[in-house]
Recover the amino acids of this structure.
């Protein structure tokens, strides 16, 4: 499927072109992505939905340079990720990608500030500059007063805010969020979605978010669905649901 978004190639931040991803488990072949094509323009906020095993997280990992396509190409911020070496990818990720995880992935022995600082340790920034950026990132997520707290001293919503501060501290080109509200109650999840919306609309951050939650997906500028390794638009799903009698939400549950 060709993504129908009207972005031109010149403004595209992400270009996924006829990508397949195949894993092998013993003699078993597992086809995860099937000729997936996607364009994400700068400043977009895209939600990816679909049932478990549809390839959402695999696609996110490809966009972040954590995995390589079996065939096809993934180009993000003018870098062909499939053609780069592991060392080149590590350097590229440190500059261009911020990750937000469902379970926060904070180190319990480090304070909030030190957790946020971790991506900057891969850079050549001075200690003073690192501290300055950490302070700015914590200010953005509203946790400057929790800088010296450890994860065990924070609520789940606050831990995720620290995770988002860590994701933005290097001023990345692209934010990749994998079920960022999946481990939170509705009120805390709404606060995280408010923050992601603000990062997109007020700070111009490009965000790709994987979610199972239709209410979370509604916060994005647009939503695409993965179905058996292929991207399906909202219109395609509605047409399918009219044909089969199923609801859109049932189709992606």
């Amino acid at each position: 499927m060709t993504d129908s978004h009207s972005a031109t190639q010149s403004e595209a931040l992400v270009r996924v072109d006829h990508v397949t991803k195949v894993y092998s488990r013993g003699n078993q072949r597992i086809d995860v992505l099937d000729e997936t094509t996607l364009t994400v323009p700068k400043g977009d906020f895209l939600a990816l939905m679909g049932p478990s095993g549809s390839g959402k997280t695999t696609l996110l990992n490809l966009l972040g340079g954590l995995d390589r396509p079996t065939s096809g190409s993934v180009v993000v911020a003018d870098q062909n990720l499939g053609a780069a070496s592991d060392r080149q990818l590590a350097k590229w990720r440190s500059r261009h990608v911020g990750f937000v995880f469902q379970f926060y992935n904070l180190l319990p022995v480090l304070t909030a500030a030190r957790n946020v600082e971790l991506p900057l340790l891969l850079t050549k920034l001075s200690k003073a500059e690192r501290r300055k950026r950490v302070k700015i990132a914590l200010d953005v997520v509203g946790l400057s007063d929790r800088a010296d707290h450890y994860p065990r001293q924070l609520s789940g919503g606050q831990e995720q805010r620290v995770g988002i501060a860590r994701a933005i501290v290097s001023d990345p080109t692209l934010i990749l969020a994998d079920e960022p509200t999946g481990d939170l109650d509705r009120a805390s999840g709404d606060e995280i979605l408010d923050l992601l919306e603000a990062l997109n609309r007020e700070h111009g951050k490009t965000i790709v978010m994987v979610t199972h939650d239709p209410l979370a997906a509604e916060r994005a500028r647009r939503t695409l669905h993965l179905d058996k390794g292929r991207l399906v638009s909202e219109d395609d799903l509605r047409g399918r649901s009219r044909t089969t009698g199923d609801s859109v939400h049932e189709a992606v549950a």
Observations:
- The chain has nine helices and ten strands.
- Residues 186-201 form the longest helix (16 residues).
- The first strand starts at residue 12 and ends at 25.
- Residues 1-10, 246-253 have pLDDT under 50 and may be disordered.
